[in-house]
Structures are given as structure tokens and as C-alpha cells.
Amino acid sequence: MSSPRRGRRPGGADTRQAILSHARTAFAERGYDGTSLREVARLAGVDPALVTHYFGSKDRLFAALMRIPDNLSAQIAAVAAGPDAERGDRLVRLFLGLWEHEATRKSLMAVFRSAVSHPRAAEGLRGFVSDALLGPLVARLSLPNPRLRAALAGSQLVGLAIVRYIVRLEAVASADPEELVPDPRSSFPSWDGDGTGEQGRLRRR
Amino acid sequence: MSSPRRGRRPGGADTRQAILSHARTAFAERGYDGTSLREVARLAGVDPALVTHYFGSKDRLFAALMRIPDNLSAQIAAVAAGPDAERGDRLVRLFLGLWEHEATRKSLMAVFRSAVSHPRAAEGLRGFVSDALLGPLVARLSLPNPRLRAALAGSQLVGLAIVRYIVRLEAVASADPEELVPDPRSSFPSWDGDGTGEQGRLRRR
DNA sequence: CCATCATTTCATCACCCGTAGAATTCTCTT
DNA sequence: AAGAGAATTCTACGGGTGATGAAATGATGG
User: Fold this and answer.
1) For residue range A166-195, what is the model confidence (pLDDT) as tens digits?
2) A142 in contact with B, Cβ within 8 Å
3) Which of A1, A138, B11, B114 has its CA 20 to 30 A from that of A115?
4) What distance in Å separates the CA atoms of residue B106 and residue A117, rounded to the nearest whole number?
5) Which residue of A has its CA nearest to B131?
6) Is a pLDDT exceeding 70 seen at residue B58?
7) Nucleotide nearest to A34 (CA to C1')
8) How many Å lie between the alpha carbon of B84 and the closest alpha carbon of chain A?
9) Does domain A70-187 have CATH number 1.10.357.10?
10) How confident is the model at residue B162, as a pLDDT?
11) Are B140 and A84 an interchain contact pair (Cβ–Cβ within 8 Å)?
């Protein structure tokens, strides 16, 4: 019955944070276009105008939840700095870890779901992959065209995330994370029909 | 001034086909959510109701342009049937060819752009990757867990397409297709820092 | 206890959306 | 020539959208 009182609420609940959190959920599940400010407001139990009040616009709301957590940079640096061997494995493991952990998964999902249609999200994804994820690694490549090589590695991670978490292709979606870590090379050799390319060739080099 | 006459148009223009074609363009550029029937109608120079008349609903319009062209199955079968060596290269080349060719690119783009938010498109993508693209190849794998291995190969293709054509990560988007064909293994070895993993290891095995 | 300020809701605005039914015009068959 | 059926547009419904400005309410510091 009682329509919610208006004006400032008693108690110091951090509503801004609550809105941001529900926005993450909504954007993660329906993407940028599929999410309305009104729906976010509904989830947060709040008037739509309040969302606009705190974040200015839908676009800026999205930008707010796209921010890369600070500690991530450190983790990536650690991966880059470690021993040369198994660096690929460690990167994949770190990446999958981000997706398996509830807190970060939603943000990633929101960005990936939206990147294909929302330019700002696409820019965010480019930044995430090329600067944050691969930037620190490029310097370690002693190959011709290291930028391209690193970007191709990034494209594998992107493909893995999309197929496993967004589009949910059965075989990949239901696999144990550790089955995905030994990088895909180990599958390709089989196409030559020799069946010897089992695993771990990278490690043994 | 003159508003378009109503009633049947003189001359036997195939309007249905025109609508479908413009719909492809629109869905390819803005995804399912970002495209309106009214916009498609505008592009086709036609009343919005005509779109509905021919295709029934937005969803069914999308379904219509998602159909996989028949000759594709044959091409894939050819890739699968060829010699074991270089099968990976041939698959990548075929896949990239589909994207580089104007006619097929739009359909693929429409599906990829929409798959992340529209369930029907996601199902289409799953079908395309797992049945059409990889189905014929799975049988050739003499490895444990061939379904997973094939699906992981598919995820690489998906990642490549998204990074190159949708999100447009500079290094990959501007590369010559042939630079992308030698499968990504050739980049990973460099992470071990030995710099010897140049190219063509697959072929030489 | 009063003034200020942050928080919250209300009431709109101006659009855009997908779909449906009826009316109009043309082509084709007989 | 007539009648049937296909192609096309018109009009409209019910609803959702992002954004804005004003009002109400509570907390806070003097």
C-alpha cells in the first residue's frame, strides 16, 4: 500500500553502491542495449531518477562499472615477471580465475556482453585486452611482430570467455577450468593425425 | 512532397529480398537490440508494416538472415576430408575467407553481434560453430576428449573474428589475413623466451 | 533550533518501439 | 472484363525509453 516515503532515508545505507551493484548484474545479464535504467532502479528498489542523479546518464553509469580493479594490474605484472616457462599457462589461469570469481565475473560479463554493440564498452574491452592484459607481456616477446602475436594470444582469451561464459557452448562451458589451461596448442597437433600432442609441450621446451 | 502511393507497386521488384538485404546490414552494424524494424524499413524505402507482413516478427526476420548458405557445408566437408597435415591452416583460411567476402561477412557479423544478447542468435552461433564448422572435424581427432578439443579450436576462431571484425583491436584488425593463418601456436612458444617457435612447426611435424 | 545540504521521489516530456487491422492499388488468371 | 489475390501503405494501440526540473524529507553543523 504505502508508497515509499520520499526525501532522504533514515539510516546511512550506501545507495549509490547498491545501484552500481545491481547495474552490474543487469548489464551482465542483458547487455547495454537490453538494460534500462528503470530496470536497474527496480532491482535496487529505488526511483529511476535517482540513478540518473548519481551517475548522470546511462552511459556514465556503465562507465562506472567498467573500471578495472586496481589489484588486477599487480596480478598481471606478477604473471609477466615470473619465469619464462609456463607464462602462458599462468596467464590463462589468471584470466579464468577472474571469470570464476563471482565479484569480477559480473563486470567482465557486462563488458563482454556490451562490447559488441556499445562503442564505449568496445573501447573498454580493447583497453583491457591490449593494455592491461597483454601490455606487460609484449615486452617479453623476442619475436618478429610481437604486438600482433600478443594480440592473437588475447584473441584466444576473448574467444574462450565468450564461448564458455556468454554463448555457453556445451563442451567448453561444462569443462573443468584446469582442462582449459594447457593452452589450445595441445589440441591442434591432433589435426595432423599423429595423436602425440597431448599436453605440456610448452612446459617441457 | 508526394507521399508514396499506396497499394501494389508497378513492376516486379523483389521487395522481400531487398528488405532482407537491408536487414542484414542493419543487424550487422547495430546488433539485434540496436536495430529496429522501422530502421530496416527506412533503409529499404518501405513501410514498417511491410517488414512485419513478410517476416511476421522481428525475431523471425532475424532467423531468416541467419540461415547458413548451403554451399558452405560442402566447403567445410572438403577441409575435413583433405590431408591431415595443414588441416588447421585450411580451416582458418576458410573461416577468414567467409569474413573477408562481403556477402557472407554481413550475415556473420549480424549473428556475432547479436549472439551475446539474443538467445536465438546465440543458438545459431552454437550451431554454426559446433555442428557446421567443427562437427565434420571432430571425427578426425584421435585424442582424448575430442569434443572439447574441437570446441576449443572453435573458440579460437570465435575470438579471432570478434577481435578482428567486431571489437577491432588494431593489431589484429589491420593484419593481412595470411599473417593470421599459421595457427596461434607459433606465437605462444615465444613466451618461453627462446624465440625459436617461428612458424610452420605444425607443417613440419 | 535553524539553515544548509545531500538524498530521494514525483510528474512529466518527447520519443521510439513492435505489432495489428483495415484500406488501397496493382497484377494475373480466367 | 471481371474477379481474386498479392503487395503496399495508413493509422493506431499500448507500452517502454532516457532525461529533467521541482518538490519533499531527513541529517548535520553551527
Assistant:
1) 999 999 999 999 999 865 444 444 444 343
2) yes
3) A138
4) 15
5) A169
6) yes
7) D17
8) 5
9) yes
10) 98
11) no
